[in-house]
């Protein structure tokens, strides 16, 4: 993103949003039924959900301070129509849209923004980025009802993007007066938001139901009268429900695409929503210095042993793309896209001959034993099959892979703390489609974040210190050209380490009953439809 041109883009996006939500839309009719494989914590309190499903079932109710660029992916205007970096680079001032209201009729003001951010960064918050929000925010000031100023700890050029669901969830807004009046427990039972859908009811482990707002919401006026999101873990059941018309939309995996098409359903593939990757744990630790994975040649050899084209064609049924470097996509900002496209084609090639040569150079001509934790994050069950295929390619160059499958909930516990069970091994993981590489690099590589792929606060070798210093230059640089150069250097540092390695770029996959919902466009890079439901037409309005 270029700071100098952002305001021009936001103005155009606001105009587009207004046009899409204008009075020409037909009356609201019917119920839009969506079936998903997960509803996460199924809590309607934004501070209690730290996983991606919030963008399915919380997003209909709650607006975010910063929004989307609906056409290109990445960020755009939200409740804040524009935001300005302070002269000293250590504050951001957000200017809110006029006339916004909560579902109970109260006005949405800067006081709600301050309250929401402070609640999200409180010690009670389970939001995934609450800790980094506490670290990055010094104070929050209400200038007037439509203006709020966030004073940051140092220069934070990417700060506004972290308050958009295009990146994280921490920018979701909550009503100050309502929560303080009825109490937190009542808010969790009967949440009030400002989004295009009003909460109706929730049955834990079953569904969440919403009523459409009747006014022309800035995100889009819903064309359906009601929205219901069901939890249906079994994929074949989800596909059957869409086929019979019991549901309009179902989340599916690549292996169900042909079945869906054969049944006369439409398939929507959302581009660039994730990367399937593998990553090495604790390779930097002193107690792992004799482990083969501590040698960068071994780590590069394992990448060269993988035939990504075969995985895309046979495991993903052709519904995936060749990846960019770790956590980067075609719409990523502050990086040289052409350079890294060229790098990916060469560096991520299939070259088992060179892989074996590198293993021999590292002292392992006959291979070695490698523990491999195979898991799938929610919404991407095909990751485990990718992991099995990757392990098979490694076996072909002589590596004795000790593969163990983990349910996601159990695996999450393993990478907290000292990561003893993972240290010295490799695991499957994924990165979500996000417009800025820096945010994902911090989570994976910074000593202060959860994955600690280069080091930790207790043990930070030279490579760890070098990455942290480089990361600081990326997030604090206000000059566009210098920031891009620093970002490219950060990407290069991680790419050359072969610590976190992309396998493929995945999509979001959905089966659609064309008799139940009309043609719509997804948001590039965003698998979840929480910010798209209000833009979905009925079949009579826009047939496929």
What is the topology, as strand order, of the major beta sheet? 8-9-10-1-11-16-12-15-13-14
Largest sheet: 10 strands, mixed
How many strands in all? 16
Q: Quick one: CATH superfamily of the largest domain?
A: Periplasmic binding protein-like II
Poorly predicted segments? 1-25
| CA(first)-CA(last) distance | 34 Å
What top-tier CATH class of the largest domain fits best?
A: Alpha Beta
Which percent bin holds the helix content?
A: 25-40%
Number of helices: 17
Anisotropy-based shape: globular
The CATH topology of the largest domain corresponds to D-Maltodextrin-Binding Protein, domain 2
The CATH architecture of the largest domain can be given as 3-Layer(aba) Sandwich
Radius of gyration: 23 Å
Strand content: 15-25%
Give the rounded overall mean pLDDT.
92
User: Structural class, judged by helices and strands?
Assistant: alpha+beta
The domain count comes to 2
Explained architecture:
The protein has 544 residues and is an alpha+beta fold. It has 2 domains: 3-248 and 513-535, D-Maltodextrin-Binding Protein, domain 2 (3-Layer(aba) Sandwich); 274-505, Roll (Dipeptide-binding Protein, domain 3), CATH 3.10.105. It contains 17 helices and 16 strands. The protein has helices at residues 6-20, 54-57, 110-120, 130-136, 176-182, 184-189, 235-244, 257-262, 296-304, 308-315, 337-347, 352-361, 383-396, 408-414, 437-445, 462-476, 480-497, and strands spanning 31-36, 66-68, 75-77, 80-85, 91-96, 137-144, 147-152, 197-203, 207-212, 226-231, 249-251, 266-280, 369-374, 400-405, 426-432, 500-512. The strands form 3 sheets. It has a 10-stranded mixed β-sheet, with helices on both faces. It has a 4-stranded antiparallel β-sheet with strand order 4-5-7-6. It has a two-stranded antiparallel ribbon with strand order 2-3. A hairpin with a 5-residue loop joins strand 4 (80-85) and strand 5. Helix 15 runs antiparallel to helix 16, helix 15 (437-445) packs across helix 17 and helix 16 (462-476) packs antiparallel against helix 17.
